[in-house]
Amino acid sequence: MANAPILEMRGITKRFPGVVALSDVSMTVTRGEIHAICGENGAGKSTLMKVLSGVYPYGTYEGEIIYEGEEVRFSDTKQSESAGIAIIHQELALIPQLSITENLFLGNEISRFGTIDWVASQKRARELLDLVGLHEDPDALIRTLGVGKQQLVEIAKALHKDVKLLILDEPTAALNEAESQHLLDLLTGFKASGMTAILISHKLNEVQRVADSITIIRDGKTVETLDVTAGGVDEDRIIRGMVGRSLESRFPQRTPRIGETFFEVRNWTVQHPVDPDRLVCKDESFYVRRGEIVGFAGLMGAGRTELAMSVFGRSYGTYLGGEIIKDGRPIQITNVHEAIENGMGYVSEDRKTLGLNLLDTVKRATVSARLEKISRAGVVDELKEYQIAEEYRQALRIKANSVDEGVSKLSGGNQQKVVLAKWMFTDPELLILDEPTRGIDVGAKYEIYNIINQLAAQGKGIVLISSELPELLGMSDRIYTIFEGQITNVLPAEQADPESLMVSMTSTRRTRQAA
Amino acid sequence: MSRERRGTARDLPDPSAGYTLRDMVSGFGGRLRDGELGSLPVVVGLVVIAVLFQALNPRFLAPGNLVNLTLQAAPLGVIALGVVVVLLVAQIDLSVGSVSGLASAVVGVAAMRLQWPLLVGIAAAIAAGAAIGAFYGFLLTRFGVPSFLITLAGLLGFLGVQLVLLGPSGSINIPFSNPLVQFANTWFLPPWAAYVIAGVAAMGVLGAGLARRRRRLRAQLPAEHPSVSIVKAVLLLGVLCLAVWYLSLDRGTAVMPVLFLLLVVAISYLLRRTRWGRSVFAVGGNPDAARRAGLPVTRTLVTAFMICSAFAALGGVLQAARLGSATTLTGSADTNLNAIAAAIIGGTSLFGGRGGAWSAVLGVLVISAISSGLTLLNLDSSVRYMVTGAVLLLAVIVDSLSRRSRASRGRA
After folding, report:
1. Residue A226's pLDDT is what?
2. B294 neighbourhood in chain A, CB within 8 Å
3. pTM
């Protein structure tokens, strides 16, 4: 049977403490096809693949996996590998200091009498590199190769293990156009020789081009499986499946009172901190008005955080060009301290590693970004510190026994409130919020939305970066979309809908004229 | 380790109520259960050490031996105090021994060979230390070389400079008539002065506590009951007077350890009450978050290294003063490792962000007590090394365990 399924996943449910990441997900992959999985950030795509490859062992999820006609129960990735399932993750698992050959056979060395047979290894390495179309010396060190070539080495490594089902998680995210093209051609070639592949990608044009069928996952559930070969599936159709949900009343009411433009960024261009060939911000311009909440939509890796961080005191990448204009005057900001002095605040996306010192107490964290406000001659006024922290604790309803409590003991939502308090204390005119509700439960989210609205009502300009389209649509007045380091569109919120945003988030194509 | 207590039920005082002695005691208990052991393990360790050595040799706790112990501990303590600051910013300085040796040579050369005024010589030695620290800080922040390696290079390099300064004879004697040597060996406070200092310290604690209470009440905030400050002050006064009285049975309270304690109080104030201190803890706790909060990370790191090296230099000067000579052995490997061990044994975390100036006092007391006790027992220095090593190991295990316990309490 040529069209028998190679893989069936039935009723997969995966729970984490407090969250259901996957709920009753099913998918069927036909032998010899390229099967794409699409969904928003956090929809559960990667989790599903981790269940399949045994990263989450049998017993930690519900449901069954039928592979090659029989039920499999992988307890680790070794077992799934030996069954012929290879997964290539977003973060490559190569060792930079070793050569291509050494990496190809790492853990799988070709040996004779217990010692590595370098001659046979070299020969096999050349064969594998030919297969993936990589013309490099097998002795070249991985770190001398670009990301695209490293990706090919990963694939070659999988091929060596006699792979039947190849899973690629966002393989083209870090690649340029030509490299992506090569990789997709390669996939099509493998398909012709009978290999099955699962492709997870945000780039819908690529998906549409190479996939035979597409399973769409949303909020941890299978929405539908589209048969591309039957025709009629285009990017818009995929997007509708990915976002097709109604916006419930999850967002507090607010009547925006928008003032004049006070903050503007023009032609902002930034280089990647280590790879000088990559621009993370390409000639980006945007503005924020007083009392306005400006949303920034973009998929992971699109460069939203990079833009925000580089504007906020050049704390990311290498600044190449562009200017910041505040209240009609160009200003020079070269470090975070100056950014704060100029009335900017930035709530970073990862509160644990970038937002808080987890050894701090609530009160110490609250005042930490603007100690000079409560110090005289360098000495901190501890009474004022206590009063201010207590004020914020009550105003933001931070659930802590007292302001002397360690922040490490608070829940994610309350930690986030402490970070918000810390930046509110700096009294910014422009507050950048980077994924302010990530990993926070629904109740706390609502409270944080309320705080954001209050700040806007005070006349502050808010930049809201979020991966959740409903959040952006529910909170923002105006939404910019970013794709591959470029601002592709800007829409007033009332004219935006998930489909039109998703189109501009996945290509430079525009649905409407820029506002 | 008991894990049955839920992280949400803690005995922290309710801020809406006044803060009384009972809250202080129960708050302390709650912190202990949460793995915030603070200085408790060291204090327990010190008691154990004292009881053990006293049982083995009744001369251990005799006034004469304790006076010697305070004199021995002070120079090492000053060096350890600097190490504490560097550890708090999550860095390390392996070269404090060499820098202290270099400083002792500088002061020897300046005072004896060049006949400079003594204070100028001392100032030159400390300035040399501060300059070395600034250099370390520059290398660390400018080139990102790990401080482990920078200071390892310093350990070797400055040992060499020390040998050059000392010249072929390898030692410079400072005569006993020199005020520096007298300061370190024969300067003792008259008993009345020692009692006055104890009284002033107690009054300071009381006054600060009452002033804090007054301000809080004026701001209509709950404040601690006056009994808290009074009890603290009385306890402090009692302990200090007891110490002064006991030491006065022998030669009395020496000036050098008092200088060390004054430095500890100063650094403690800087760390706990000033913006600089806040950045020290912030940089040690999470440098990325500190940078994103606009804190002067570079300046904090550089000043931390400057303080460490300057204190190492001062410690070296005191050591030379105590021995009456600057030799190639001043600041040798012993000093280096003992100072770092003292800071860690005293309760400053090797991982940054946790600890305080007083851990230098506790740690150096442990190290000096072990050394003094074993000397009294006529045991070889080989035993001393092994015992000190074991105690250090124990201290870092306690630190790691309490870290893990706190991590399990916090909702990670």
Report:
1. 87
2. 313, 335-337, 339-340, 369
3. 0.77
